[in-house]
Amino acid sequence: MTQAAIAIDSLCKTYQGGKRALDGVTFDVPRGQIFGLLGPNGAGKSTLINILAGLVNKTGGNVSIWGFDIDAHPRNAKASIGIVNQEIIFDPFFTPKETLEIQAGLYGVPKDRFNAMALLRAVHLEDKADAYSRTLSGGMKRRLMVAKAMVHSPPVLVLDEPTAGVDVELRQQLWAYVRELNQRGVTVVLTTHYLEEAEQLCDRIAIINHGKLIANKPTRELVGMAQEKVVEVTVDRDVATVPDNACFQKVEMKGERTLVITYRKDQANAGEVLGAVQGAGLGIVDVSTREADLEDVFLNLTRAANG
Ligand SMILES: Nc1ncnc2c1ncn2[C@@H]1O[C@H](COP(=O)(O)OP(=O)(O)OP(=O)(O)O)[C@@H](O)[C@H]1O
């Protein structure tokens, strides 16, 4: 099917008081992907997700989820999406199993199509099925939120900062589950501050800044946009004057003998950079390079957009 999982067209939101949180955002989330929605704090990500969830009313534009316009077919649109919010919200006096059963009831999921234990197993909470939810750790609560969002088996799952404050091991478990869901055909949209995770997980990434879309590309292409490379060169003597060369964009010293040189991939290559160091009369003892990553691209794009 060619239809998008989520289609967002000229989406605007101006809050009462005049704050324009979304300013004409247009993009599609293709079906079957893990899609990253990134942006600095206050960019408008939560506003966008809250519009998808039906918690915030847009002030302009159109949104459809799994082909259902959220204004014309709100029930079908809502049934097509599961959302895990930043805040952890559930009644602490119910057990995880009860929490899922209540949610299934709210969504009208027939009993024969719902297996609370299977869902709890999937998020590694099987042994906590009958514990009070308030006794769960932060990471466990978050996983319970994911299970809750999947109760009605929606084709689209949205996770807003799902791993904030969750330790590394639990983050990996959560991502493993997200990948598994995706392999089973669920389209996943996530926001995260961990750019490295977005780079590893997402097929495609959109970046918003001050309510505007500033990038929307396959992850590999986006990372490929990084033009800067950094090479660390350790030399055979103390450096009295930091060498300069046309192919260096920036040179910093790390200790007495290590030069940290930034250059642009489109203007020079590592050979030229090293040649320039030798040309300054320095012998090279050691070299290491760092590939540019999503963080570099993200900073460059948001800086450029901020003018
Ligand atoms: N209810 C509200 N009333 C007025 N302004 C709001 C409201 N909610 C959000 N905003 C403003 O809208 C802008 C976008 O906020 P939003 O929470 O969508 O950003 P975000 O990208 O999710 O940020 P974060 O990563 O910090 O959660 C911010 O300037 C925020 O202060």
Main sheet overview: 6 strands, mixed
Shape: elongated
Query: How many helical elements?
Result: 10
Oligomer type: single chain
Give, in spatial order, the strands making up the sheet with the most strands: 6-7-8-3-9-10
Whole-number tally of structural domains = 2
C-alpha-based Rg, rounded: 24 Å
Looking at CATH, the homologous superfamily of the largest domain is P-loop containing nucleotide triphosphate hydrolases
Tell me how many strands there are: 14
CATH topology term of the largest domain:
Rossmann fold
Instruction: Report the helical percentage.
Output: 25-40%
Question: Which class of the largest domain in CATH terms?
Answer: Alpha Beta
Structural class call reads: alpha/beta
Strand content: 25-35%
Order of helix and strand elements from N to C terminus: EEEHEEHEHHHEHEHEEHEEEHEH
Keywords: ATP-binding, Nucleotide-binding, Transport
GO molecular function: ATP binding; ATP hydrolysis activity
Domain ABC transporter: 6-235
Pfam family, one: ABC_tran
Describe the structure.
The protein is of the alpha/beta class. Helices cover 31% and strands 28% of the residues. The chain has helices at residues 45-52, 74-79, 96-106, 116-122, 138-149, 168-183, 195-201, 219-224, 270-279, 294-305, and strands at 6-14, 20-29, 34-38, 60-65, 68-69, 81-84, 156-160, 187-191, 204-209, 212-218, 228-235, 250-254, 258-264, 284-290. The longest helix is centred in the middle third of the chain and has 16 residues, at 168-183. The protein is elongated. It binds adenosine-5'-triphosphate (ATP). Adenosine-5'-triphosphate (ATP) is lined by residues 15, 17, 19, 21, 39, 41-47.
